[in-house]
Amino acid sequence: MPFTANRQFKKAPRMLVAAEGMHYTTADGRQILDGTAGLWCCNAGHKRPKIVQAIQEQAAELDYAPAFQMGHPKVFELANRLVDLAPEPFEHAFFTNSGSESVETALKIAIAYHRARGEGQRTRLIGRERGYHGVNFGGISVGGIVNNRKVFGSLLTGVDHLPHTHDLKRNAFTRGQPEHGAELADELERICALHGPETIAAVIVEPMAGSTGVLLPPKDYLQRLRAITKKHGILLIFDEVITGFGRLGAPFAAGYFDVMPDMITCAKGLTNGVIPMGAVLTTAQIHDAFMTGPEHLIELFHGYTYSGNPIACAAGLGTLDTYAEEGLLTRGAELAGYWEDALHSLRGLPHVIDIRNMGLIGAVELEPIAGEPTKRAFSAFLKAYEKGILIRTTGDIIALSPPLIIEKDHIDQLIGTLGDVLKTLD
């Protein structure tokens, strides 16, 4: 099982057999309040009628269409809807099957883009410590989570990393963006001086790092990173697999922070997690750089059997309709204050060393047990499940990202139950 303590799980399986709205149903009939939107993906909650209907109707009409040299109407409709939703510079979409594949696609496009412009020497990629960009070789190479990298060999060459922005000493218990740390973006200048900026193709970062424990960008950090990349002709890629589709109270983090990258990767909330799908959004400048030469030739030698799968496209359209009709892409902004106050009410409970939040996302960081990292948070995860809430842990950090349909009484239940759990931890 992926990212699972397999032996522990099989001794006491946690089996989910149904889901609706804000809740999962377990094999023994208990209701579990979903505090994580599945895996950061079920932003509209579960068993949503428009999505279910869209999938059923599409399966009965056109189950599959080849993506190479062929098309179908819904893939173009979904691309147009995505472009309309994205910030103004983005005019094209390339569909994948996951966030991991979206990252691989964006990295390949970045390198190929520079080659198409006559700067083929730009092959170096820059990620960030504690970054998560999926689990394929490109993603773990630019990513910076140690356990995702250390057992898989030498990875890609020509990769360097910016320092992470997590600073407990100066920023603990911050509400929203931290005050300290914008200067960490200037490390990109050092990396440019070390390797030569003319060798660097792209910098990829999560505007808000999710899977590594909800690490928020310090004020002015993203703006400085954008300024440096533009100065040196380096592409900036925002990995919005988690922050896309309303998590921060806006359709995309690029719009929320008003910092425009050159590419956006997305997945998860694109289809509400129901059907695997991802996408890379690009500007016209990047797209048009490939559109040269004889028209019968393939412009980009890249793609997947399931790129723009008809049923996935139908799920995406049903998802976007649900978001639009219920105002879910901005609902996080409406509930952010209540969510923030509830989260920070946990301050002072045993072992809590930091709480951080933005939009409808939050983290409670616990002091690790000496010599047994991750054990305290995993214990919290198990106890929370027994008490009827689903949380996610990464290291000794508890991450929360509930469906955007959450109500205040759900927040009270989620945070209240988590507080009860924290009081029992050794």
UniProtKB/TrEMBL annotation:
Domain of life: Bacteria
Keywords attached to this entry: Aminotransferase, Pyridoxal phosphate, Transferase
Pfam families assigned: Aminotran_3
Gene Ontology MF terms: adenosylmethionine-8-amino-7-oxononanoate transaminase activity; pyridoxal phosphate binding
Keyword ATP-binding included in the entry's annotation: no
Cofactor: pyridoxal 5'-phosphate
Keyword Phosphoprotein: no
InterPro entries the record matches: Aminotrans_3, Aminotrans_3_PPA_site, PyrdxlP-dep_Trfase, PyrdxlP-dep_Trfase_major, PyrdxlP-dep_Trfase_small
Family from the record: Belongs to the class-III pyridoxal-phosphate-dependent aminotransferase family.
The protein's name in its UniProt record: Aspartate aminotransferase family protein
